[in-house]
Fold IraD/Gp25-like domain-containing protein.
Amino acid sequence: MSGISKTTGKVLSRREHIGQSIDDILTTPIRTRLMRRNYGSYLPQMVDHPATAANRLRLIAATAQAIMKWEPRTRLLSVRVGFTAQGKCQLHIVRRDTNSVDSTTYTVTVGGMA
């Protein structure tokens, strides 16, 4: 199954559509989507916290929780947290899509004008 790009309207491959979905899930704050108040993640509320080891772990946990709950077409293999010079949070996600043997690396930027 493939999908449509939310920016160009062009057809996306399954892998690209899952990446777009993960981006939407992680950048949507919980309780902001009408009719689906539980949709999204806690990442947007967490990115302004200090970059301590405990908060990095919270970011990873929030990422894993949101992807496991809202994107059943993929399995999370690892998440690394980094920060840009502008203070934005970058999540480097390695995932394996169902019905695939290959893993995919995907980066999501959260915070500020991502």
Summary: The chain has one domain: 3-110. The chain has a mean pLDDT of 90. The first helix runs from residue 14 to 27.
